[in-house]
Structure formats: C-alpha cells, structure tokens
Amino acid sequence: MNSRLYLNYRGFHYQTRWLPTVDVKAECISLKIPPSATNPSGEPIYTFPAIIDYTSPGAEPTAVSDSYRILRYLETQYPPSAPIFPLYSEPKWSAFNSFIDERIIIVAGSLFVYELAATKLPEELSYFQSNMEALFKGPWADLRLEGPKRSIALKQLEDNLQASLEYFGDQKEGTYHLGDDITYADFAICAALIWCKSLASQEDWSKISAWKAGRWGDLVKRFSSWTTVTGQELKLW
C-alpha cells in the first residue's frame, strides 16, 4: 500500500496488475523481478509489491520488489523537491522500516488474520493458512484472537504505534511524524493503518482511529486522496 500511496503522491503514471498470492513467485521469476528476501536456508522469497520501470528508452526495464526498496529507488531515480528520507542515514530508515514490519504489521496481522483470509481466493486459502500457522506458531483454528487475548493484542498495537512516534528520539511538533513535512515514516505507518481499516470491524477501527487523540484516524484521512488504484498492470499491495 505505501508504494501506491507514494506513486499517487508524486503523480507518477503507472498501471496496476493483480495476481493471486500463489502465482507471485512464478510471475516474479518470469518478469525478472528480484526476490524481496531470503529464508534462513538461503532460498529466495518472492512477494509483492513490485514495480517495473519502463521509462528509460533503449534500456532494460528496472524491476524492484519490497515497498521500502521501491520508495528508495523512486526517490533516487526521480528526486523530489522534498525528499521523504530526510535527516537520518539509510540504515536508520531501514531499521525503522523493520520496526514497522515487526511491531505493527505482525501485531495487526494477528488481530485480523481471519478477516484477511476472507479476502483470499479459494485457490489461495490453503497456502495462506499454512503460512499464517508458521508465522504465528499454531494451528489455524487457534489463531483467531477473542476476548482478553484480543484486548491484549489491541493494547500492544496501540503501544507500538506510540513507540513509532518516539523511534527517532527527537520528534518535532507538527501534523506528521517528523513535523510538518511528510516523510517515509508517514507512508509506512499510514499504509499499515489503511490495511487495518480495510480488515477491521467498525468497533475495532473506531478504537484504533481514536488512539492518540484521533491522530491515526486523521492520518488516514489526510492520505485518502492517494489510495486510488490506477490501471491494471502492476501489483502494488
């Protein structure tokens, strides 16, 4: 989602292509899209989002996977007047990206794993469920969080969102994470929140959007004009 937000924010022209999860690996290999990671045994892992940049005439297209690397590539290849990676080094921003994945995306995934399953095609479901069982270390039937367990996970998500504001240690007052200018932190956090909103019940989203005096709900509203899906050629979430 943050790839799409950024492409729309910058006004890039692009097309979107949607694929079932089970087809991602074969399509990436076919299109020469690099893996987004490797597993402990060294086997490549292919995931979306990914982009293919065809804009250099006479040159081979450039394929990039992983949201963070996509935004880094676009910022370098097409420098904006106001960079979204200011102030801190690349390793610091990369570590922040890992923080979002591990402390926000994973916790939100544990909360909404059954809702996410409902968005999958029938041919994807078994693959998805086995991946979630491995990620959350339990049988599928035990992964739905209810009652006190759900309340604990919601509190953990709230605390981790607060921790994201304190991550750099010198947060400035303002509308966005580092003051009045949009940075990668806002794209990453807002993408996670939009994902939560798309899956959460009205009750859960009302809680999340109200945390921090409504800050998170307001952030989603500010980014809402950049959520449009354009065309049908490149998968962005």
Structure overview:
This protein is mainly alpha-helical and 237 residues long. Helices cover 54% and strands 5% of the residues. It contains nine helices and four strands. It has helices at residues 2-10, 24-31, 67-77, 90-111, 113-117, 122-136, 147-165, 184-199, 202-223, and strands at 37-38, 44-45, 50-53, 62-65. The strands form two sheets. Strands 1-2 form a two-stranded antiparallel sheet. It has a two-stranded antiparallel ribbon with strand order 3-4. The radius of gyration is 18 Å and the shape is globular. It starts with a helix and ends in a 14-residue tail after the last helix.
Mean pLDDT: 92
How many β-strand stretches?
4
List SSEs in N-to-C order.
HHEEEEHHHHHHH
Gross morphology: globular
Oligomerization category of the chains in this entry: single chain
